[in-house]
Write a structure and sequence with these properties.
Number of strands: 25
Strand order of the largest sheet: 14-15-16-17-18-19-20-21-22-23-24-25
Shape: elongated
Strand content: over 45%
Structural class: mainly beta
Helix content: under 10%
Order of helices and strands: EEEEHEEEEEEEEEEEEEEEEEEEEE
Distance between the termini: 34 Å
Largest sheet: 12 strands, antiparallel, barrel
Length: 356
């Protein structure tokens, strides 16, 4: 008997950053906000990702690492990503952090952001963040902040030779004047994102035992799913690579049902971004259950309905968030189509929940 197939179809990614900067633009005809994510590196300058969000929901990503740009281009992912050298510093002014960032945007605009905190960043202001317009067209993000401070009206954004107003923060402190800008120390970004990939099955287990593996090839890149534990009808599978994943699956007759996927930011990451499913009852046509997204030991930060639609030659899976409120409408639809040993996997943002 040939063992059932295991393929992980979801584009689930977790990134950890040391600093996160964010500001709203007021009055700009095209741009809505700017975010920057900064990762310290022991043997070089920090890795910086600066994102300009447009009012139509699209975005331009800027990176100061040419190797990551090349890898992104080779992957065929649809986001606009450009290379830009960057200058970043974090100092203290009067006992409060002050951050400085400058780069040239994808539209050749000189961009300078100076943020002055109103206090030392505190975990009281941290937690799960409303992403606003971030990744509105590209995925369902989970943004967790460790320590946060909002910024003072002395903060300044210069873009294309013009100073743009940062609007006053609504609902702020009666004792501090603050604007819609913040600095975070310690930031985790998980995202269930869109993608389009074709993978060919080139190796499969002879039996469902530890050490056996499924191997998929997408051009020169191979993805290995290795069984690390088997206990009755339960399997633990490790997706190997620089961004490893741990997959828990259950053997059901001639198929494997994925129950849990944990994505790690690196091989030494003790925690992870967890996508978990409540198994549906067997049936035909549309199957409906629930899903949750958790981070490390923080459970069920995003929850919603999970629908599986069985169609000839393909499976359509829809994740429809219901909580928190800002996740409503950020529906991720993933389609897996098979032709022989080749699998086409397409994840995209859907419009509205559908009734099947």
């Amino acid at each position: 008997m040939i063992p059932p197939l295991l393929i992980q179809p979801f584009n689930l990614v977790l990134q950890r950053y040391d600093y996160y900067l964010s500001t709203i633009l007021k009055g700009h005809p095209e741009y809505d906000s700017i975010q920057a994510l900064v990762m310290k590196r022991p043997n070089g300058p920090p890795l910086i990702r600066a994102v300009i969000n447009r009012r139509d929901g699209s975005r331009i990503e800027h990176l100061n690492h040419e190797g990551i740009i090349r890898a992104h281009q080779a992957s065929g992912r649809p986001q606009e990503v450009v290379y830009s050298p960057m200058v970043f510093s974090l100092e203290e002014a009067g006992g409060k952090p002050a951050a400085h960032l400058e780069f040239i945007s994808g539209n050749k605009e000189e961009t300078v952001l100076d943020l002055l905190c109103t206090r030392r960043p505190t975990p009281k202001l941290g937690g799960l963040m409303n992403p606003g317009s971030f990744a509105a067209r590209t995925g369902l993000p989970l943004m967790w902040t460790d320590r946060v401070s909002f910024c003072s009206p002395q903060s300044r954004l210069t873009l294309g030779g013009r100073v743009w107003e940062i609007p006053p923060r609504s609902g702020g402190s009666l004792f501090r004047r603050e604007v819609e800008a913040l600095l975070c120390l310690g930031f985790s970004l998980g995202i269930l994102g869109r993608e389009h990939r074709v993978a060919e099955l080139i190796g499969a287990p002879s039996q469902l035992l530890p050490g056996e593996s499924w191997i998929f090839a997408a051009g020169p890149v191979q993805t290995v799913y290795r069984i690390v534990q088997q206990d009755g009808s339960s399997l633990a599978v490790r997706q190997e690579g620089p961004l490893p994943q741990t997959i828990m699956a259950r053997i059901e007759e001639n198929r494997l049902d994925i129950l849990r996927i944990e994505a790690h930011s690196g091989p030494l990451d003790p925690g992870g971004l967890v996508l978990e499913f409540i198994p549906p009852e067997p049936g035909a046509g549309a199957l409906s259950s629930f899903f949750s997204l958790s981070l490390d030991d923080r459970q069920d930060l995003i929850t919603g309905r999970f629908r599986t639609i069985l169609q000839p030659g393909r499976v359509v899976m829809r994740l429809e968030p219901e909580r928190p409120f800002w996740a409503l409408g950020r529906i991720v639809e993933t389609t897996v189509a098979r032709q022989g040993q080749a699998f086409q996997i397409v994840s995209a943002m859907a419009d509205l929940p559908q009734v099947y």
